[in-house]
Amino acid sequence: MIEAEAIRLFKCLADKSRLQILKNLVQEDMYAERLAERLGLTAATISFHMKKLEDAGAVTSYKDQYYTMYSLRQEIFMTNIIDIIKEESDEAREQKQREEAYRKKVLMSFFEYGRLKSIPAQRKKERICLEEIAKSFEADRVYEEKEVNEIIERFHADFCTIRRDMISEGIMEREGMRYSKSK
Amino acid sequence: MKDFIEYIDSSMEDLQKEEQELIAADRKDESNLVRIRSNIFGIARTLYEVTAKKESPENVTDAYLEKTDKLAGNWELSLQMAEEHDDIEKKVIEEVKLCTIQEINQKLREVGYDRSGSNQIIQVSCR
Predict the structure, then answer these.
(1) What is the ipTM of this complex?
(2) Which residues from B are below 8 Å from A52, CB to CB?
(3) Neighboring chain B residues of A61 at a CB cutoff of 8 Å
(4) What's the domain range around A55?
(5) pLDDT for A38-94, tens place per residue?
(6) Which of A3, A70, B28, B37 has the fewest CB atoms within 10 Å, measured from its CB?
(7) DSSP code string of A104-145
(8) Are A9 and B19 in contact, with CB atoms under 8 Å apart?
(9) Looking at the partner chain, which of B26, B91, B127 has a beta carbon nearest the beta carbon of A42?
(10) Is residue A123 in some structural domain?
(11) Which of A16, A42, A44 sits opposite B27 (nearest CB)?
(12) A173 and A132 within one domain
């Protein structure tokens, strides 16, 4: 288990209700409504906790007839804490992880369900958003301006600003009215 | 509508207490949901007071309910989006907001007013 995964798991476990859920799941697999009944919480609150536990890799789910059943990922809890502590930290990898975490945070703030909510004022953040939009363009393909606008419009109505900024940031290249993704 | 304001204040007090208890019990995420409920009570109080200053006494409730309908409309949209994208965290939060405003407005009707046609807030299952 890498450091980031361990931190995510420990953070997730630092909650009494989630520990209670795991205590129930260690006995047998259960569905949300049953857990809700046992713990005196609403099914919605249980779903909320289950999402966090699943994201942290602590539980997994599967369909059983009409129910979504949850089960404990035993192998995660077999990991020795001492092994996690002993694992050497790789500075380059950590740096990359920090960058990736920052990138994720920016994308989460500015994107909602795949649409750009607003164009970031800060250049560094805008670049991250532009790079995300650029993922919709194929490498080694030449696009007409109309096509570029249509693709960008899926993310934000102001395709002119975004298209222009992609050029000035060197993310896209323009030759006349034809565009391609920078290599 | 002194009763209504008193109801909001006492509910907020109870919720703040519940929030602190949940924090003390290491149930931070649930305490956040309770804080959201408390904030909705705060919003309702502010909206009601602002409306009461602007409107004549007989129009206050109507005008207030109109404002909360509009607010809840935005939350309904967010809830629909969250459901479409299977965003469970957001879905739970939007449901809590909608349930809370339903509960508050229901109380307003109980303490002395029943608007014909009632408000149009989507009925979310609140437990």
Answers:
(1) 0.71
(2) 29, 89
(3) none
(4) 3-77
(5) 999 998 899 999 999 999 999 999 998 888 999 999 999 888 888 888 777 667 777
(6) B28
(7) HHHHHHHEETTEESS--SSHHHHHHHHHHHHTTSPTT-EEEH
(8) no
(9) B127
(10) yes
(11) A16
(12) yes
